[in-house]
Amino acid sequence: MPDFKPVRGMRDLLIEETKQLNLIIRNARKVAKCYNYGEVTTPIVESHELVSAKSSDEIRNRMFTFQDLGDRAVALRPEFTASIARLVTTVLKKAPRPMRLFSIGSVYRYDEPQRGRYREFWQSNYELMGSNKPEADAELILLTNYFLKALGLKKYFFKVGHIGIIKGILDQERVAEKTQKEVLHLMDKKEYDEAFSQLKNDNVKSVLQGLVEVKGDDIFEITDEMRVQVKDYSKARDAADNLMEILKFVASSGCSIDSIQPTFSRGLEYYTGLIFEVQVPELEISLGGGGRYDRLIELFGGISTPAVGVAHGLDRINLALQIQGVEAKDQKAKKIFVIPIGEDLRIKALNIVEELRNSGLFVEFEVMGRKMGKALEYANKCKMDYAVIVGKSELKEGSVALRNLVKHEQINVKLENLLKKIQE
Ligand code: AMP
């Protein structure tokens, strides 16, 4: 008998590895739940025509393609977006917008196997359909940040660009679609001379060269500089404004964007607006990436639907956690125990309980009429995370006492900040 091994680029995941993958999958599902993305399951085998329609030559040339026994040209899915677009143009055609869809599973690409690059790998994929607003773009970045932060990844950074800036220039100059693709691809690889040699117009070349050289101290300054650089191209200017708005939403929600890449285009052909990737310093490959693709649904025969999405590479996230020495854990809802000090505060305390429960926390109310010491003893025994102590003098100030039962610290917190403080 031959010595059977997995096919090149394929891996067996043994018990511990499967456990770890499942833990990351559970966390990805939790993200979907928190952001209200409904999970759908689509087939691993799709028609070759569908999955090759609008990806990129890089992916098209690396698909696992075959004829099935019925002589149909099929392929193992290289990503989820084409399958989701198929749903949105058919069975979900009339579903209310915005539509938030989540998928998770294995995808297949004939990539050259190396660390973090496999031929079968796992992705979690989130697509938001029906909104062309910058807050929708921001949501996909924030969701990615939430996922990585919740897993405990210590250091990661976001790279952001906007395909509409270069495309706006090339469109206005009526550069043929095929040449545009070539230019974007070469600029993405930083082969600028080669990219510019595809263009005839010297003015375009100098504007693009200017974009390559844009510098600034922070992301807003760089985006502003890009806007100045493309001032004669109205669509490119709009794209820079759009990028600025998205960045404002993201930054004001506490997620930092580390670099703006004026010439970034991320391989896939269907992007029309924001594009982003997340990386860790220890690996040169991205952990996840996404962007806006406003024309894909239309190209698939559906009603024109703006859309933005992201795919996370779960194997690479796992690798990054290992490299950074992080032991990922399942996220559990924080357990809170609410204690009223005195009978007349029970109603107010119960109101607080219900409000916290409505925010998805696990909350238990003191129903035994115990004094604070005894109630806290019980909360500690039950391994609660926090006690919220509702007392008269604090309440007069619109506050309660929040006791961290793990760290044994207590502070007074205004009621309107209570949830935020617990979730910190
Ligand atoms: P893409 O679908 O190309 O936007 O990729 C999304 C994410 O999938 C990337 O950021 C990677 O984390 C992951 N990924 C892509 N190709 C591979 C591969 N060959 N092996 C493992 N992960 C991959």
Q: From the structure provided, what is the oligomeric state, counting identical versus distinct chains?
A: single chain
Shape: globular
User: Kindly state the mean pLDDT as a whole number?
Assistant: 93
Across the major sheet, the strand order is 1-5-6-11-10-9-7-8
Whole-Å distance between the termini?
A: 58 Å
Give me the secondary-structure category: alpha+beta
| Relative helix content | 40-55%
Bound ligands: adenosine monophosphate
Low-confidence stretches: none
Number of strands: 16
Strand content: 15-25%
User: Major sheet: size, sense and barrel closure?
Assistant: 8 strands, mixed
Number of helices: 17
How many whole angstroms does the radius of gyration measure?
25 Å
Description:
This protein has helices at residues 15-34, 48-52, 57-60, 81-89, 134-151, 163-172, 177-188, 192-196, 202-212, 219-229, 234-252, 296-299, 314-323, 346-358, 372-381, 392-396, 418-423; strands at residues 38-39, 45-47, 65-67, 73-76, 99-108, 120-129, 157-162, 259-260, 274-279, 286-292, 307-313, 335-340, 362-365, 386-390, 399-404, 409-414. The protein is an alpha+beta fold and 424 residues long. Strand 3 (65-67) and strand 4 (73-76) form a beta hairpin. Bound molecules: adenosine monophosphate. Adenosine monophosphate binds at residues 79, 109, 111, 116-118, 121, 123, 286-289, 311, 313, 315-316. Adenosine monophosphate binds next to strand 6, strand 10, strand 11 and helix 13.
